């Protein structure tokens, strides 16, 4: 699996990185919208973003809820809604598409942490 290191990308905008949510993949699942009191988070490119402001897309019962609480780098970069693409494997994925997704989430949402490789 090709790994993504946030420090190696220049696609990241302003470093709004609170470190409040440095989570591993399993921890992230809690923030999938089931509990409406909790923020909605997703990870792309090794960062964790707070996507709560996009609740109409990612909240419970919403069309893109599949991405909430998940590591969504591959799925977002290739435009897939398949469960099997919810991971950080960017093998065969256009790097510009990955960078574009990091940029998109960084500009629209707040970066709140990094994805930890180990739980
Ligand atoms: C027929 C296919 C699709 C249509 C018509 C469609 C349409 C839309 C529309 C209208 C929005 C909302 C834009 C807005 O109000 O700002 C949206 C957002 C979004 N779409 Fe799709 N979409 C399609 C397929 C997909 C696929 C395959 C993916 C898989 C990655 C995807 C991922 C997203 C995401 C993540 C957002 C939310 C972005 C944000 O946080 O603002 N869409 N889509």
Q: What small-molecule ligands were found? A: protoporphyrin IX containing FE
Low-confidence runs = none
Structural class: alpha+beta
- CATH homologous superfamily classification: Cytochrome b5-like heme/steroid binding domain
CATH class: Alpha Beta
The average pLDDT score comes to 90
The number of helices is 4
CATH architecture: Roll
Total domains: 1
User: In percent, how much strand structure appears in the residues?
Assistant: 5-15%
DSSP, total strands: 4
Q: N-to-C terminal Cα separation, in Å?
A: 18 Å
Major sheet summary line? 4 strands, mixed
Radius of gyration: 13 Å
**How much helical structure, as a percent, in the residues?**
10-25%
Characterization of the model:
Belongs to the cytochrome b5 family. MAPR subfamily. It is built from four helices and four strands, in the order E-H-E-E-H-H-H-E. The protein has helices at residues 25-28, 55-58, 73-78, 95-108, and strands at residues 23-24, 41-44, 47-50, 110-116. A four-stranded mixed beta sheet has the order 1-4-3-2. Strand 2 and strand 3 form a beta hairpin. The two termini are 18 Å apart. The model has no long low-confidence stretch (mean pLDDT 90). The site of protoporphyrin IX containing FE (HEM) has 10 residues, from helix 3. Protoporphyrin IX containing FE (HEM) binds at residues 54, 57, 64, 67, 75-76, 79-81, 108.
């Amino acid at each position: 699996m090709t790994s993504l290191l946030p420090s190696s990308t220049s696609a990241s905008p302003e470093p709004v990185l609170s470190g409040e949510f440095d989570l591993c993949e399993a921890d992230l699942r809690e923030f999938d919208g089931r509990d409406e009191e909790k923020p909605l988070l997703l990870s792309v490119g090794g960062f964790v973003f707070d996507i709560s402001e996009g609740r109409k897309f990612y909240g419970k019962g919403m069309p893109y809820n599949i991405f909430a609480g998940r590591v969504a780098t591959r799925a977002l970069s290739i435009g897939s809604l398949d469960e099997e693409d919810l991971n950080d494997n960017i093998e065969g994925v256009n790097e510009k598409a990955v960078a574009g997704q990091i940029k998109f989430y960084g500009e629209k949402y707040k970066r709140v942490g990094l994805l930890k490789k180990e739980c």
